[in-house]
Amino acid sequence: MVTKPRHDIYQPYYTTSKALVKYMVESLSVTNGMRIFEPCAGNGVFIDALIEKISDITVEAFELDTQAVAALNKKYAIDRRITINHCDTLTDDMLTLYANSGGYFERIIANPPYGAWQDYDKRKDLKKLYPQMYVKETYALFLYRCIQLLKEHGLLVFIVPDTFLHLHSHTLLRKFILTNTKIKEIALFPSSFFPNINFGYANLSIITLEKSYRPEECLANQVRVLTGFRQVEELETAKYRSLKVHTLKQEHIFNTSNHAFVVSDSVVLECLDCRDKKIGDIADCVTGLYSGNDRRFLRPISSQVKNGQHYPVLAKELICPDYSTIDNILHGIADPASFIPIMKGGAVKYFKPDRWYIDWSTGAVEFYKTDKKARFQNSRYYFTSGIGVPMVSSSYVTAALIENKLFDQSIVGVFPHNSEWIYYLLAFFNSPTCTKLLRAINPSANNSANYIKKLPFILPKEPILASINQAVCAILAALKNGSHYKPEDEFYINQLICDLYGC
User: Fold this and answer.
1) What are phi and psi of 53, to 5 degrees?
2) Which residues pair with 225 in a beta bridge?
3) Element spanning 36, H or E
4) Contact 191, 226 (CB under 8 A)
5) Are residues 427 and 322 in the same domain?
6) For the purposes of burial, counting CB atoms within 10 Å of the CB of 275, is it exposed (0-12), middle (13-18) or buried (19 or more)?
7) Boundary (domain end) residue, out of 225, 259, 293
8) How many helices (H) and strands (E) does the chain have?
9) How far is CA 246 from CA 44, 242, 289, 501, in A?
């Protein structure tokens, strides 16, 4: 059995920012006589701040890490207001009793573990306890559990990654939050506020919410969302001069696709809301092939290809000269020259030259179809025409034309039901408008098929469509000839799409 390091098991990211702690404690609105729960007490930073602010309170603290428990017991040995429990908040029987009886605590505050390791047996147990939750993400389980532990009108303040606001895996958690709590405020800020700590998440959030058993009141609640923080110290000031303050109705959030929190300007929100047709209605969005062993089957055309230094360079005589004419190409190529081009990820606009090749011999294809790790998925779209959008992008979305070739699992292939829309969609996916809309739906750099399907689709009138197609053709012609396209062509396209979508 492999023993995981202590940090992998508990993922303790202790809160050291005074501004952050002050903001969270102030948001908790504690008064004398209250019973407060700290579900993962860590080094006691929240406990210290609470008892300094209000002396007449009791704190029930849970902590699973043995070393942390020993330190907490020593620290609060003579303080009768504080009880330290060496227990697992997610599985403790007494807490389950409290949760099932309508809650117990008046206030809950925490910085729960992010991505803590759960062995497979514990995952099975957690799935039984939380059948509707995504049990691989510990912070989400803590949030769900602690909402259950709140009394009616009780307040909770958590610092957690912002992924619960939009990831598909947290859809049921969002539904639970929106119908069982009134969200008071969400502060969104980059994890870079905490240097030298690798959270594994780009952005963090602090959520403040109030427990409510009246779904109609929950949905009528207005959520205040703060964005635009430039430094962590801005959390402790009430001026918010540099911040953007968004107000969202919980009912509006509840009615979005997958109950996702879409935080953006009003123009973008209007565009997302008022369009009946989505990309998923007019195109199939799928991911491509995974060989199961890329080091064995993939080859770059040159060692200068990005990440190509880790692979043997392909000998040109092994490239199949005209694979598109081969019958039953999905069964492979029965010839020594059996390598064919495959599109991989990487931010390239409009046209991506053939840089990577894959072994498409009959034996290799049989491996892709039968190996447990390999994914011969969505093969009906292999060797057809469409648009390839990399699953991971940086500051902007890009897309390149797929022309009768393979694409791998790092690419979302978009295949419109009407082939006449390919150039227009290629232009749309490369436009700033698309990036703006997609980042509103999903603020992370993950452009998965499910998010792309949610993008609105507006078909321009024929003269505009023809103009966009003509400009895209000019760009593609230049790129295929190894030249640079005219910037004014792209500017013209982007302006037409901006005018069409209004953003």
Assistant:
1) -80, -45
2) 186, 246
3) strand 35-38
4) no
5) yes
6) middle
7) 259
8) 19, 16
9) 33, 13, 41, 22
* Interhelix angle 432-441/487-501, nearest 10 degrees: 50
Q: Could you tell me the two tokens for 496? A: 């037409």
Residues 381 and 429 in one domain: yes
- Does 117 map to a domain? yes
330 in Cβ contact with 378 (< 8 Å)? no
- Mean pLDDT by runs of 10 across the 503 residues of the chain is 40 67 94 96 94 94 94 94 95 95 96 74 86 86 96 96 88 96 93 60 87 96 90 70 83 87 68 76 96 96 90 95 92 95 94 96 97 96 96 86 95 96 97 89 81 92 95 96 93 93 83
Could you tell me the residue range of the domain that residue 79 belongs to? 6-259
**Domain for residue 270, yes or no?**
no
DSSP, collapsed to helix, strand or coil, labels residue 289 as: strand
Asked whether residue 252 is domain-assigned, the answer is yes
Count of other CB atoms within 10 angstroms of residue 269: 18
H or E element that contains 404: strand 400-407
pLDDT at 4: 42
pLDDT of residue 265: 61
Assess contact for 102 and 152: CB atoms under 8 A: yes
Q: What is the pLDDT of residue 18?
A: 86
**H helix or E strand, kind and range, residue 428:** helix 422-429
DSSP structural state of residue 229: -
Q: Is residue 87 left, alpha or beta, with left meaning phi > 0 and alpha meaning psi from -120 to 50?
A: beta
Using a cut of 0.90, tell me whether the model's pTM lies above it. Answer: no
Pairing of strands 283-287, 222-227: unpaired
Question: Helix 462-480 to helix 422-429 angle, to the nearest 10 degrees?
Answer: 80
What is residue 399's DSSP assignment?
A: -
- Same domain, yes or no, for 372 and 489? yes
In 3D, which of 429, 289, 406 has the Cα closest to residue 350? Answer: 429
Which CA distances in Å does 135 have to 86, 121, 122, 283, 396? 22, 12, 10, 32, 31
Burial annotation 360-376 (CB, 10 A radius, 16+ → b, else e): bbeebbebbeeeeebbb
Domain boundary residue among 224, 259, 294? 259
Q: Kindly report the CATH number assigned to the domain that includes residue 173.
A: 3.40.50.150
Residues 346 and 242 both lie in one domain: no
Mark whether 138 and 186 lie in a shared domain: yes
Contacts 24+ apart (CB under 8 A), 68-75: 68/10, 68/12, 68/41, 68/42, 68/43, 71/43, 72/41, 72/43, 72/44, 75/44
To which H or E segment does residue 299 belong?
strand 298-300
Q: Are the CB atoms for 186 and 225 separated by under 8 Å?
A: yes
> At a CB cut-off of 8 Å and minimum separation 6, what does 120 contact?
none
394: amino acid identity, one letter: S
